[in-house]
Design brief:
The chain is an all-alpha fold. Helix content is 62%, strand content 0%. The protein is globular and about 40 Å long. 9% of the residues are buried.
Length: 76
């Protein structure tokens, strides 16, 4: 699984390098990793507030956290 995720990141970077407007420097995968780590330690509201420094749009933040918290048995 780790190898597949790494390959996915490399392929994403190669694809984004063709269009400078889409180049994000692995921001999204890094943010996903951070959210997954923090999701087990923080409540939904705490994580929502914590991500404010990385994601300005509240609707986008909400969708990111909802996706990460969806798979957890205890989301508190």
């Amino acid at each position: 699984m780790t190898i597949e995720e790494g390959s996915g990141c490399v392929n994403m970077m190669l694809e984004q390098s063709k269009d400078p407007k889409k180049f994000t420097y692995l921001f999204k995968p890094a943010l996903n990793y951070y959210m997954c780590c923090k999701a087990s330690e923080m409540s939904f509201a705490e994580l929502f507030k914590d991500l404010e420094k990385y994601v300005d749009n509240p609707k986008t933040r909400y969708q990111y956290i909802l996706r990460v918290k969806r798979g957890l048995a205890d989301t508190s």
